Amino acid sequence: MAVEQVAKVLIDGATSDLSFSYLVPKGITVLEGQRVRIPLRNRSAIGTVTALEQIDTATVGYQIKPIQSVVSEDAFLTAGLMKLAHWISDFYLTPVESVIRTMLPKPSRGGEEKRKFAKFVELVDEVTDADLAAMPARQEKQRIALEKIRELKSVLLSELTGKHEISRSSIKALETKNLVKVTEKIVTRDPMKEVDYVPSKALVMNPEQEVVLKMVFDSWDAIGRGEPVKPILLYGVTGSGKTEVYLQAIQRAIDEGKGAIVLVPEIALTPQTADRFKQRFAHIKDQVAILHSNLSEGERHDEWRKVLDQKARIVIGARSAIFSPIKNLGLIVVDEEHENSYKQDSAPRYQARDIAVVRGHLEKCPVLLGSATPSLETWKNAETGKYDVAYMRQRVDDQKMPLIRIIDMRQEGRKAASGPTILSTKLRKSMEERLADGEQTILFLNRRGFARNILCTECGYVSNCRHCATTLTLHRGDDRLICHICGFSQLPPRKCPECSSKSVVNAGYGTERVEEILRQVFTDARITRVDTDSMRKKNALRDTLNAFRARKIDILLGTQMIAKGLHFPNVTLVGILNADVGLHIPDIRAGERTFQLLTQVAGRAGRGELEGEVVVQTYTPHHPSIQFARHHDFEGFAEQELAMRRQFKHPPYIHMALITCRSVHQERAEFSLKTLHARLTKNLPEGISVTDPLPSPLVKSHDQWRFQVVLKSNGARSLARHIRGVLSQLTFPNDVIVTVDIDPYSMA
Ligand code: ADP
Ligand code: ZN
Ligand code: ZN
CA torsion sign, 472 to 474 to 480 to 482? Predict the structure, then answer.
């Protein structure tokens, strides 16, 4: 008998989910979820320990190689995350190892965890006043240095030589005498270190808020009794006080020694949102980790480290924050749960809100999904009783919903002498009134750049990207035509490249062009444009929003960057310049998105004492999304949209898989897809259907041709099983990439 400890190790980069056995050498301890270096054929590799077991190695019949070393001093993944990784791998058809690496911040994905070290100076032994006094007068500088080090205890070398103006040579001299020592220590990069937060107090809850809070508390009680709990949909209108509920529920979780994760859409993770959390938890500031896209890789890693070391117990972040290694999870909040940015558009193509629900289930923790316009997936689950629902129908300030006016732009176009316009007479008049009254306006247009594209009125030539099947957008500021898919850019032609005509015109309106028009129309107004082009500088957005709040800006014109999570009490007019931008794209959720967007944007108007007005310009005034939004009728919208989805067998009534073959060679992409399609239709299990093989709506992107097939199924498991079975038996040419997107958001 030779019973020894053996670790199952899943190797990075493995395409199959097999894990291999390695001996744990005597004298080192290895944990589940830890990263280790192991021998693999004649090289070494890195992997994650997925299980540990005691085996009688004598009975195995071959020699088990030992682990070479551990590359992380602790387990990177909690037991809960390990389980979750397997669930994601099954559901989204992604190898477990790739899911595991997605769960880690970049600096921890490779071999050694990349941490930041810095030199610190400290005393070797105690130094008394008498010791200092005994130093000879010519060592005055050393004496000052020693005194300073004694005062500061452990101090950064750079701080000592910089801020405290102690010379390197003094420190060297003291080091030689063995009075001080210089050591390397891990430092944490804290992006919020310099900021002081004014603590905010918990508000007295109104009855609707009380109910929700009690539902969360009841869930904890039920979990305590070993009963299962359902996710809770918090369906609350904008301004009903959802965030306050989150804050108080989290406080309670913390009081009970548990942790919490709050997911917010990337775009809503404005400094303003982050600040609300930082302020409420100012007394335990170090226990709050905030993960947003503006952090450097190092900062992001250190925030994650704080969580892994159980120092931070509250995590606020976008999508990937759902993978935070909190051990004793008490609550998961998904704010604006309907937001599309919860869906990741590269592998693994997970939907973070769905993952939150799964993680809550696996780790026995309540999940709170908040929205004023819930996704139809969630709404259906609420209707069927899979989720509990809490309603918050009143705005905290008791304000009425703003009045929404729909402007038919077809009529406007006919009225105007100069053809189509972007500012209707009504909107222009309302803006003039606001300017006269010293109130503010937000204008919204979901297209950046100057014009949609440029067009030759002689021959119909349109500027297209040479790498993608899409048009190039004119950006005046940079004087370039830019592809919004691949970033390719070129100089705008002065005459038509096809017919040499000089009649090339700008077609459509982007934010740049509207800004130019606004400056001509409202000559005295203070106007600022907010989009990814104008807000490139760090803190530009924060500064602009602060200036707007301080009423230093009259008109804020922007893309979706300004649609979410902002309150400005002095804004009484919101204009949506073209409500149709999102309606005519090949997407089953187009109508839903437009409804959500109109409702969210409308929620920006009249959030203070003053009543608000919303002007929606559209070429399809009778579209249900627009009409229901106008009446603030989410439930009506959901009812008719769900009826339609059910009839056409669309999500949420079925699961979908979008399989795409991509290649720089058109024929190969097409041929591979056809082969795949043939296999998929053979022995098709009950309840699954397959479309014909088709070119993607965006048939070429980044120089790659794209062909696709869509599968629909009543069950997600049978769908994944069928696809996995087919793919495992096929090999594709090297230059063909096959991707599977389960429950896709974009069909392009
Ligand atoms: P939502 O997240 O639903 O849009 P918020 O939580 O942002 O709503 O609340 C809107 C405003 O009402 C905020 O300024 C918030 O401080 C305030 N508020 C929330 N709850 C209360 C309450 N119980 N009493 C007083 N003010 C509240
Ligand atoms: Zn032409
Ligand atoms: Zn392109």
Answer: negative
